[in-house]
Backbone:
């Protein structure tokens, strides 16, 4: 039997690699690295490849379902409503839903995913997150670091004011996607290990990231989760496992946690961890080849085409909205009395609906989904779009550039 590791090759969030790192511990070998965003084009040259399919799904929902060569364990899965093409839940209709029903029940990481699956008549259960199974490292010494992981500036200032004597350090899970994608999986996982060891050694960790908070439970480091009310549906499945606070209640709740002498973590996660470990080990130890889901190429391509065709309206609407926003932005800039020089778009204030660029301030009814950068030169404005929502990386066969054979990169 061959084994594959699901990896988001082009990620800008190391949390994706923490998910993959958690799955790798159960694999006897990594014979293939499978790009999460191009699983439908995976080619194993006729070999059946077992893979644990945990993680966040997905930006390229038209690249679905995964190739029949993959024998999957669908566990610890989060399905987002967001993607590049505005497809949302529609990829669970027809072929996409039939695929998951073939391998059901599906282990949902959180309640929102389980409800989405059940809404589409796909049997599901609440499994929890695979990062709860991460093992502790040997030889990691405790430090006095209080780590703030992707904590917003206002919360950071509040925590520093409350605990001026603590050695507070800031950490981020964000990475440069272009540079990060050029690193080997070994290099990326070394970076994950360094980060996990730092978390394990910390006095405590305060974070807005689930894929920091849940690993800290596994590593037995006191952890406190801060979340925005908008993210409550995504977070609610884990709140009973953690010390936490909504953003607006932080000052009171962080004092209850007591950074000077952090509260011990809750232990409710242990049963979830044990069940996940048992599920993954049973899947790997069972050498029976499950009958794969089959669909003709004609049917598959027709279904994928229909998904993309239905996205045309989404594209047109989004482009029209961006064009209108840019036109209004340029008018506002031209009305501003600004001396020649350079200025960069720096912030958006959700409270006032204002965009600020140096001394330039202009109003917009709503921020764009596609952020823009602006430069001002001699009275001329130019706009360069960054990270367009519809941008899709070229689809490539995973085995053409990321084959592994028994842990060695080809």
Residues:
């Amino acid at each position: 039997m061959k084994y594959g590791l699901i990896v988001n090759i082009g990620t800008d969030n190391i949390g994706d690699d923490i998910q993959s790192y958690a799955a790798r511990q159960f694999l006897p070998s990594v014979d293939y690295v499978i790009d999460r965003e191009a699983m439908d084009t995976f080619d194993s040259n006729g070999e059946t490849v077992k893979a644990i399919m945990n993680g966040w799904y997905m930006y390229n929902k038209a690249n679905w379902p995964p190739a029949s060569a993959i024998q999957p364990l669908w566990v610890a899965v989060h399905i987002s409503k967001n993607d590049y093409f505005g497809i949302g839940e529609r990829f669970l209709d027809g072929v996409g839903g039939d695929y998951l029903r073939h391998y059901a029940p599906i282990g949902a990481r959180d309640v929102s995913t389980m409800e989405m699956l059940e809404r589409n008549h796909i049997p599901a259960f609440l499994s929890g997150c695979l990062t709860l199974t991460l093992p502790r490292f040997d030889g990691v010494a405790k430090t006095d670091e209080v780590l703030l992981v992707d904590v917003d500036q206002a919360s950071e200032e509040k925590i520093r004011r409350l605990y001026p004597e603590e050695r507070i350090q800031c950490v981020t899970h964000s990475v440069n996607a272009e540079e990060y994608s050029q690193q080997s999986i070994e290099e990326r996982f070394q970076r994950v290990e360094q980060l996990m060891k730092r978390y394990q050694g910390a006095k405590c960790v305060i974070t807005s990231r689930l894929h920091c908070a849940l690993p800290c439970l596994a590593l037995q480091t006191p952890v406190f989760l801060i979340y925005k009310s908008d993210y409550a549906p995504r977070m609610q499945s884990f709140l009973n496992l953690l010390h936490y606070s909504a953003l607006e209640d932080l000052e009171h709740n962080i004092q209850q946690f007591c950074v000077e002498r952090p509260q011990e973590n809750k232990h409710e996660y242990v049963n979830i961890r044990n069940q996940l470990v048992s599920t993954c080990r049973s899947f790997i130890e069972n050498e029976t080849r499950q009958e794969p889901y089959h669909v003709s190429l004609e049917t598959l391509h027709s279904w994928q085409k229909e998904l993309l065709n239905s996205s045309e309206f989404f594209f047109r609407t989004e482009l029209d909205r961006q064009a209108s926003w840019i036109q209004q932005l340029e008018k506002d800039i031209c009305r501003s009395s600004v001396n020649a020089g350079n200025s960069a778009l720096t912030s958006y204030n959700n409270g006032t609906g204002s965009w600020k660029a140096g001394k330039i301030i202009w109003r917009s009814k709503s921020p764009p989904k596609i952020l823009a950068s602006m430069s001002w030169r001699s009275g001329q404005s130019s706009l360069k779009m960054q990270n367009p929502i519809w941008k899709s990386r070229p689809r490539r066969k995973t085995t053409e550039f990321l084959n592994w054979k028994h842990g060695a990169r080809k």
User: Anything to note?
Assistant: The longest helix spans residues 312-335. The chain has a mean pLDDT of 83. Residues 41 and 397 are 5 Å apart (CA to CA). The two ends are 19 Å apart (CA to CA).
